[in-house]
Write a structure and sequence with these properties.
The chain is α/β, with parallel strands linked by helices and 405 residues long. 40% of the residues lie in helices and 17% in strands. A hairpin with a 4-residue loop joins strand 11 and strand 12. Helix 11 packs parallel to helix 14. Bound molecules: ligand 7TS. Ligand 7TS binds next to helix 4.
């Protein structure tokens, strides 16, 4: 049975609140989505009745906790169509997943003179870790340019690919532009020169089907908090053959096989990469977040969000002096914009006073801002629980900002 919009909205209690004495319009979903009731209840239940440590105890609560924790791993594996469960590794978020890949893959594979390709539109989390490992190993980070429409320049990409390239890492969807990148094609091209490919799926995981076998990506990273789940939990998927060869990331409990003072041997996947007590409650609640997404269905989510994107694009394009940054046809429900006389920060502040939450700034994509010669944008990002009435409030709000200036 499909839920109607009122039923969907009632699953997200935060949608019922007011800010500055007006009902909240939440349009900052690319930064973090709101949390659904099954996730909130799961966290609550865990700390009320189920809290203990996992993977270590023989007692009831520890075994039950371990079972639930591992059930999320199975759920994630199904969700992304991972061929094995043990190639799903829990981290703190996309940022930690990419740092882990860069550090451990880098130490394994990178040599002096090797190249890593990333695009101009990457989030800093998909730039800085590569710079850090490149510096350590004597490799180079090279930029894949983008077009004026905000698309990856595939001709330039092809010309940059050569046997020295060991890794290509790009966002599936750009957080600042909303561009959906043709990653399947890009992965195939990278593999033709023997390079591995990392997909930053932070912005796609809750909005479109992500199938690691269909994409044939070598690594995939995403965050639970952008998919209605808790903060502090993320996922790294990697191909088993590479993960098995990679050295561990952090040392500590759980990741070991045998420890002596002289030497340690390491545990098998996935534990080799999961040192220390994880965010147990968060990982368990991620399963509830995935179940929630499945209950709506990713096809339905895409359909609802495309409708919102089209409606908002049309309305916002009609505002004189407003320019949308990122004009490709292949877009998710993210609209970055600038206005002739108002700085993005002022747009954000004046909208906030009207109860409308958007994000302003460089969105952790400074090279992208430089590419478009702007210091910042205002960004509205939509989710299936948003409505056309809320978009009308955004558009009226922007018109008021214009009048103010
Ligand atoms: N990659 C992309 C494409 C992102 O959009 C983000 C977060 C990250 C990586 C980092 O994710 P984290 O969960 O580890 O922090 N993006 C945003 C944003 O657009 N506004 O706030 C956070």
């Amino acid at each position: 049975m499909t839920k109607n919009i009122e039923q969907i909205r009632s699953d997200f209690p935060e949608l019922e609140r007011s800010v500055h004495n007006v009902p909240l319009v939440y349009l900052d979903n690319a930064a973090s989505t709101l949390k659904c009731l099954p996730v909130i209840n799961s966290i609550n239940n865990h700390y009320r009745l189920d809290a203990s440590n996992i993977h270590r105890g023989v007692h009831y609560l520890s075994e039950e906790g371990t079972k639930k924790f591992e059930e999320t791993r199975e759920e994630v594996a199904r969700f992304i169509n991972s061929p094995e469960v043990e190639t799903v590794i829990f981290t703190k978020g996309t940022t930690e997943s990419i740092n882990l890949i860069a550090e451990c893959f880098g130490r394994l594979e990178l040599e002096k003179g090797d190249e890593i390709l990333i695009s101009t539109m990457e989030h800093h989390s998909n730039i800085v870790p590569w710079q850090m490992i490149a510096e350590k190993m004597g490799a180079k980070v090279i930029e894949i340019p983008i077009t004026d429409l905000g698309e990856i320049d595939l001709v330039a990409y092809k010309s940059l690919l050569n046997p020295k390239v060991k890794m290509v890492s790009t966002a599936h969807i750009s957080n600042s532009l909303g561009t959906i990148n043709p990653i399947k094609e890009m992965i195939k091209m990278a593999h033709e020169v023997g390079a591995k490919f990392t997909v930053d799926a932070a912005q796609s995981i809750a909005h479109m089907k992500v199938d690691v076998q269909e994409l044939d990506c070598d690594f995939l990273a995403f965050s639970s908090h952008k998919m209605f789940g808790p903060t502090g939990v993320g996922v790294l998927y990697g191909k088993k053959e590479i993960l098995n060869r990679m050295p561990p990331y952090q040392g500590g409990g759980d990741m070991i096989d045998v420890v002596t003072i002289e030497k340690t041997t390491y545990n098998d996947l996935p534990h080799k990469f999961e040192a220390g007590t994880p965010h147990i409650a968060g990982v368990i609640a991620l399963k509830d977040a995935i179940n929630y997404i499945n209950s709506i269905g990713l096809d339905e989510i895409s359909r609802l969000e495309s409708e919102l994107l089209n409606y908002a694009t049309e309305g916002m394009s009609s505002i004189d002096g407003l320019e949308i940054i990122g004009k490709t046809k292949s877009k998710s429900a993210v609209i970055s914009f600038v206005m002739k006389d108002a700085h993005p920060h002022d747009i954000g502040t004046l909208l906030d006073k009207q109860g409308i939450a958007i994000r302003t700034g460089h969105h952790c994509t400074q090279p992208l801002m430089k590419r478009f010669n702007i210091p910042a944008t205002a960004r509205a990002s939509f989710c299936f629980y948003n409505t056309k009435e809320e978009i009308d409030r955004l558009i009226n709000g922007i018109k008021k900002v214009k009048e103010f200036f």
